[in-house]
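Review this chain:
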Amino acid sequence: MMYRISVVSVMLVGLLLQSQTAGARVDFTDLVEESIPAVVNIETLRFGSRPAQRGESSQEGAGEIPDLFRRFFDMPFGEGGPRAQPDRRSGGSGFIIESDGLVVTNHHVVEDADEIIVRLADRREFEAVLVGSDAETDIAVLRIDARDLPTLRLGESDSLRQGEWVIAIGSPFSFEQSVTAGIVSGKGRTQRTPQQQYVPFIQTDVAINRGNSGGPLIRTDGTVVGVNSWILSSHGGNIGLSFAIPVEVARNSVEQLLEFGRVSRGYLGVGIEMITRQKADALNLDRPAGALVNRVEPGSPAEEAGIEVGDVIVRFNDMMVDVFSDLPPLVGMVRPGTEVPVEISRWGDRLVKQVKVAQREEQVADTGDDREPDAEPSNALGLAVESIDSETRRRLGDPQGGVLITNVESDSAFRAGVRRNQVILMINNQPIGGMDDFRQIVDGLPEGRTVALLLHRSDGSTTFVAYTPESQD
């Protein structure tokens, strides 16, 4: 009898759990029904070139045509006949944020377009005017001549949690108002190109494909938390690595484009790099977190606030900087002229600096030249160095002070990135004015401890490296 009761009990528990699991499934039908009317399809047209005249080449793009058909495309009227470059159509998505026809999409969807057509969910079409576009956040604003349109409400993404459900609506491969769902996989992701370093992307596993770009990423409360922008894929199709621009970044770009016609970004005036475990040890940090300052631009907000090379920025404007790539988006989001607190770690001591953020301008990269010096005897760092003459200093981009590395004998130094023709500017935050400073500092280094070197490289840039020198026998 007890056995039968136990079996029945187990079956009842199993059915109850199955029922609860089924009841826990997320139903997006109401959310989709409310959101779809405000999502639009965007079609762009880029006009082709005039027909090529006799004697001119019209082979641009010919590599895309299979060999079997190339001769038919190349010779429509015989060799040398006039051939026009075709008009190019492409598509994307967008969504309405104001009922009088304001539409948000991606910059890359409408870039270089000669004509932009917005098609609503009810099949009405409008020619759109480009209000403004920003390549670095990949946001564009369009306006169509319409009234009383359905809209989507911009929410906030800061409270998004990993594992939270989100949906995407768009026109993948021109299948309009398509809906896909997934979860938030991560936040604060950076693209692997420097162009969009000011965007901390939201990563999801929502199926995104060509044509979804510019469409909304929506959480279950019906608010937009991101603008779908790009995917990472080895073959061009979705593999569950989709990235959206956070709504805070999109909102800031939209507001500035509407008000000024361009997007201004904050400028701090520092060069930064990642902190490794060895660098953290040398800088007296308890963990490899923050953004290590390897350059401070003269006259920049950072210099005026007292930020120095070797400082580690751990918080900016009350936001944590866990990895160095967190900092550019935080700085870029600050309106120029705003004063913000910046918390730094200076060789283990915590300081807070008040920085008045300036407006970012385009930066021009410095360059320098390499040379082939003779090697000098090594030292406790496993490096051979020499003083720098005026001609060499000029060719290296005029570094201030320092000694020139002529040979790298330490394996650990080499693995850390130390190379010939670099200039040692600091050792453990102590400036190197010349050979006397170098000898004095190196002679006082405790054996077996990690050292941090600030190096001036031959291309004019500066970087920190950290390593533990091998014991000198």
Remarks:
- The first helix runs from residue 2 to 23.
- Residues 1-5, 19-23, 49-84, 362-376 have pLDDT under 50 and may be disordered.
